[in-house]
Amino acid sequence: MLLLQCPWCGPRDETEYQYGGQAHVPYPAAPADLDDAQWAEYVFYRDNPQGPFAERWVHSGGCRRWFHVLRDTSTHQVLAVYRLDESRPEPHQPADRAGGNR
User: Fold this and answer.
1) How far apart are CA 76 and CA 14, in angstroms?
2) Radius of gyration over every alpha carbon of the chain, rounded to an integer in angstroms
3) Which positions ≥6 away from 67 have C-beta within 8 Å?
């Protein structure tokens, strides 16, 4: 079970939220100039990285506000939560297991 920190309501169970897809996908500058293939790419094609990934979520069972979550897709660990008017934070790097950070 995923525990998400709503920027307005605090920590809540993932059942109160709905996933909204990849965050920070820019709307086309000249939408009237796009052909069908370009529109399909904009609407349907998203990144699928292993590691930190910015996502949009809505607190549908609470305040109904949208926000962003930076989540590691390989571990499901939530790295950061931030409002739509805030910049994407840099993910924290894990400590060097080979001997750094003593």
Assistant:
1) 12
2) 16
3) 6, 7, 56, 57, 58, 59, 81, 82, 83, 84
Contact indicator for 86, 92 with CB cutoff of 8 Å: no
Q: Model confidence over 6-46: pLDDT tens digits?
A: 999 999 999 999 999 999 999 999 999 999 999 999 999 99
The Cα–Cα gap between 52 and 71 comes to 5
Query: Which amino acid does the sequence have at 19?
Result: Y
CB atoms within 10 A of CB 102: 5
Other CB atoms within 10 A of residue 81 CB? 18
